[in-house]
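Question thread 4412

I'm putting together a teaching handout and wanted feedback from people who do this every day. The idea is simple: show students a protein as raw sequence, then show them the structure tokens that encode its fold, then repeat with a second protein so they can compare. Below is the first pair exactly as I plan to print it.
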Amino acid sequence: MLRVFVDHCLELHLRGALSVEMGANAKLVASEMQNKLLDEFLQVHGGYGFMSEYAIGRAWADARVARIYGGSSEIMKEIIARTL
């Protein structure tokens, strides 16, 4: 479901029709889902998940920054809240 939404946002962006609110929503939902899933994957791998020698450890560390760059999740929530 998320993939369909992100693909729709990409289509709108390419046409120049993506609104700021929809872009913020896509960024927020996608980064939160990524972090939620990686947290679960990390639990499965146990201590190995925190070691940078393993792909899961690198992916988990890289995903943390997604909550910050391009605007923090809190800023995305404020942008979305303005439309309510």
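The second pair follows. I'd like the answer to focus on this one:
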Amino acid sequence: MEIKQEAVSRARKNEIDYTAVANSSEFKTLLQEKRKFIVPMSIFFFCFYIALPLMTSYSKVLNTPAIGAITWAWLFAIAQFIMTWALCIIYSRKAESFDKLSDKILQSLEKGRG
């Protein structure tokens, strides 16, 4: 019986108060930083992505030749692939700062337990 109580008390020591974490200023800073980055990037991605079908459907701007027989529509489509890769690279680099903020939160949790 004593072994079971000891295991329960160890488990309680390792419990995380998620409400306290969610209310902490560090966590709110992390969410704010992520939101400041992700929302504008998502809006940009959506607008850039939807522009090609809209412009080819409702205007003739992209149907004009850009380089020889290659039209602006083809260049815009290729640019969408490049934009997607670029956003992935930018996010990967920015995620490092998010990871640092997350590590600070974890460290403060460890200090609080220890």
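Top answer:
Good format. For the second protein you could add a caption like this: The longest helix spans residues 72-113. Helices lie at 2-13, 18-23, 25-58, 72-113.
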